[in-house]
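Quick question, first post here. What does this chain look like in 3D?
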Amino acid sequence: MKNTTEFSTSSFKKVLKSVGSQRVSEGSAVALAEEIESVAEKISSTALSYAQEDERMTVRKEDIRKAILDHSDRDVKRNSTIKVNA
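> Answer (accepted):
Ran it through. Tokens below.
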């Protein structure tokens, strides 16, 4: 499976191994990278809209955190959670 994301699959292999996986396929690392990239794009887009609402060109940490909380709230409604240190 070819990696078409902006992320390195080796990083995701390390993450999977760090939680106890003894062996990690390239496909699993690519799948994880694709999912993380998708979530990051959604959060980034929401954060950008917050910056634009405040007439700023710079996305700030607080924009990202607010966007994460917004997306987390949506996920909770679908019985999923994302933990955020606000």
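The chain has one domain: 9-77.
The chain has three helices and no strands.
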